[in-house]
């Protein structure tokens, strides 16, 4: 006799969860929860670290100027509001933008502190020195650096300074700007003396050479002078020495 099977309901599920007797449900119900609520997505440690090291900072890690920070904060506030409308306030995009806004707010508060004002002053004077090449501006920059370094020393003693401190990058940038100005002065004197030796005094050359060597020494001690920088400065010094 050919094989056969007992008749039954076609397509029936035999391993379904039991349904309580006396109810009208024909299948199991999902776990209870808030109807219509958007899911909340958390930011990873990588996301938070990325925000802390990039938001409101330059490629070198220094804090951006106060005005730019305030503008960026407004931009991210608008992005956070848009993400909350489109994907919900608990979405990853909305939370990411909110974390960025919080980071910007902290940087703005830091920039408005006495230490922040000191760093901003050094930054502005460095930019001014690059544009003007003025000795007076370099003197003001030197004073501003002394104030900033004094504050940084106090922060280190109190354990408030960290690896993200922008004091050293600002100091390096200021020294490079100063070196550019002094090298330019010596170069101009060399060109002037080459055309008419009597137009340049020994004292002018001696002072210019001393200025170049002084700032180059400071850059080397801080490790911000490259081999090409040092070679360019020494080439000018050697050429000026021959003229003397």
| String of helices and strands | HHHHHHHH
For the biggest sheet, the summary is:
none
Binned, the helix content reads: 55-70%
Query: Which stretches of 5+ consecutive residues score pLDDT under 50?
Result: none
Tell me the total number of β-strands: 0
Rounded average pLDDT: 85
Approximately what portion of the residues adopt beta-strand conformation? Answer: under 5%
Shape: elongated
- How far apart, in Å, are the first and last alpha carbons? 123 Å
Main structural class: mainly alpha
How many helix segments?
A: 8
The whole-angstrom Rg is 33 Å
Task: Give the total of domains.
Answer: 2
Structural commentary:
- By secondary structure, the protein is mostly helical.
- It has 2 domains: 45-111; 114-243, no CATH class.
- The protein is built from 8 helices and no strands.
- Helix 5 (135-157) runs antiparallel to helix 6 (167-195).
- It is elongated and about 80 Å long.
- The model has no long low-confidence stretch (mean pLDDT 85).
Task: Give a quick set of tags describing it.
244 residues, mainly alpha, elongated
Helix-strand layout with pairing:
Layout: H1 45-54, H2 66-87, H3 92-111, H4 114-132, H5 135-157, H6 167-195, H7 202-222, H8 227-243
Helix pairs in contact: 1-3, 2-3, 4-5, 4-6, 5-6, 6-7, 6-8, 7-8
Summarize the structure.
With 244 residues, the protein is mainly alpha-helical. The chain has helices spanning 45-54, 66-87, 92-111, 114-132, 135-157, 167-195, 202-222, 227-243.
């Amino acid at each position: 006799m050919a094989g056969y099977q007992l008749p039954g309901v076609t397509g029936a599920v035999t391993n379904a969860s039991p349904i309580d007797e006396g109810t009208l449900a024909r299948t199991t119900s999902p776990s209870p929860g808030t109807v219509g609520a958007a899911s909340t997505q958390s930011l990873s440690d990588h996301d938070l670290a990325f925000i802390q090291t990039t938001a409101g900072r330059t490629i070198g890690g220094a804090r951006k100027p106060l005005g730019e920070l305030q503008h960026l904060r407004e931009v991210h506030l608008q992005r956070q509001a848009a993400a909350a409308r489109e994907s919900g306030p608990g979405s990853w995009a909305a939370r990411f933008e909110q974390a960025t806004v919080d980071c910007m707010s902290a940087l703005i508060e830091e920039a408005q502190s006495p230490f922040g004002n000191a760093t901003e002053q050094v930054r502005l004077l460095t930019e001014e020195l690059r544009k003007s090449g003025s000795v007076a501006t370099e003197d003001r920059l030197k004073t501003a650096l002394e104030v900033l370094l004094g504050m940084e020393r106090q922060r280190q003693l109190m354990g408030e300074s960290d690896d993200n401190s922008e004091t050293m990058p600002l100091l390096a940038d200021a020294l490079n700007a100063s070196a550019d100005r002094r090298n330019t002065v010596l170069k101009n004197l060399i060109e002037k003396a080459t055309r008419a030796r009597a137009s340049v005094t020994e004292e002018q050359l001696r002072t210019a050479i001393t200025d170049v060597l002084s700032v180059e020494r400071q850059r080397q001690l801080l490790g911000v002078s490259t081999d090409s920088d040092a070679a360019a400065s020494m080439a000018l010094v050697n050429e000026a020495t021959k003229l003397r």
